[in-house]
Every structure is written in structure tokens, then in C-alpha cells.
Amino acid sequence: MAIHLTIVNEHELIVMQWMGEIDDSDSAVALQSYATHPDARAGQNILSDMSGITHGYFDLPKRLALQTSLDRVLSTGEKPRTIVYYAPHDTSQQLATQYAKLWESTPLITAHVVSDEGEALNLLNLPYDSMANVTDLLK
Fold first, then answer.
1. Is 18 exposed, middle or buried (0-12, 13-18, 19+ CB in 10 A)?
2. CB atoms inside a 10 Å sphere around CB 103
3. Cα gap 101→57, rounded to integer Å
4. Whole-prediction pTM
5. How high is the mean pLDDT of the chain?
6. Of 72, 88, 119, 125, which sees the most CB atoms within 10 A?
7. What phi, psi does 138 have (nearest 5°)?
8. DSSP annotation string for 12-40
9. Residue 122: CB partners within 8 Å, gap ≥ 6?
10. How far is CA 99 from the centre of its chain?
């Protein structure tokens, strides 16, 4: 899988590590696995580390068709959810911006696209100073 998903219960956080070539089916598989994960909970925030993307393809019609099912999974419950796309280079920035726009009409989800590690971690109120510290949690 081009997207590795880990739930960090201690921080009510989902970490998605994007690697290599990515298309919409990769994010669909990752989020579908989240939807059936026993640790999935309403209101868990998402840190999407897109620093490992080498190429990304966004198919708007396909993604819009998928968005309905994603809304049901990610906007479950009354708790707001923050999605932070850490996208430090042009390829990841372009893809992250397209994904973030799709959440604009979902009331309980706020999506951010940032290129700075510190800003990404701060938006999620995480007590770490680098993505490497977060990655250490996943081991």
C-alpha cells in the first residue's frame, strides 16, 4: 500500500504516511481500512505526512464519487476533526491542496495544507518538534 495508516490512541490521532506514486485508490484503501479498524473513533485528528510522495494523480470525478463514503466515515459523531496535510514540496502541495478543498463543505472537518513540520504539529497540538518524533511513535 502506498499509504501506511497508524492510529495513535494516546493522541487521538491517525497518522497517514504517503510514499511513492499516489492516486485516489490509495487514499480510498487507507481510509476504508481506517473505517473498519477497531481503534477508529469519532473526532480523531489526521496527520497526513505527504513528504514521501514522488508523483500524485487526482481524478476529480472519481474522488467526488468516493467523497460521500468518506464523509460518512470521517464526520461520524459530534466531535470536530482536524486534518493536516504536511506537504513540504511542490508535488505534495498540489495533491494536498486538491484533497483539502474537498473537505470545505463538511462542517465538522477542518483541513490545512502546510509545508512546515512545526506548523503541522502545532495545528494538532502535538508535543513534538519534528515529524521524526511522530514517526518514532509508529515503531
1. buried
2. 20
3. 15
4. 0.88
5. 85
6. 88
7. -85, -5
8. TEEEEEEEEEE-HHHHHHHHHHHHT-TT-
9. none
10. 9
Instruction: State yes or no: pLDDT of 134 exceeds 60.
Output: yes
Q: Write out the three cell numbers for 9.
A: 490512541
**Which DSSP string corresponds to 35-103?**
HT-TT--TT-EEEEEEEEEEEE---HHHHHHHHHHHHHHHT-SSS-EEEEEE--SHHHHHHHHHHHHTT
Quote the DSSP letter at residue 9: G
State the CB neighbour count (10 A cutoff) for residue 114.
Answer: 18
What DSSP state is assigned to residue 119? H
> What one-character DSSP code corresponds to residue 106?
-
Phi-psi region of 20 (alpha: psi -120 to 50; beta: other; left: phi over 0): left
**13-22/45-56 β-pairing:** parallel
Q: What residue type is assigned to position 39 of the chain?
A: D
Q: What's the grid cell of residue 138? A: 509508529
Q: Which three cell numbers mark 65?
A: 464519487
Cα–Cα distance between 55 and 110 in angstroms, integer? 25
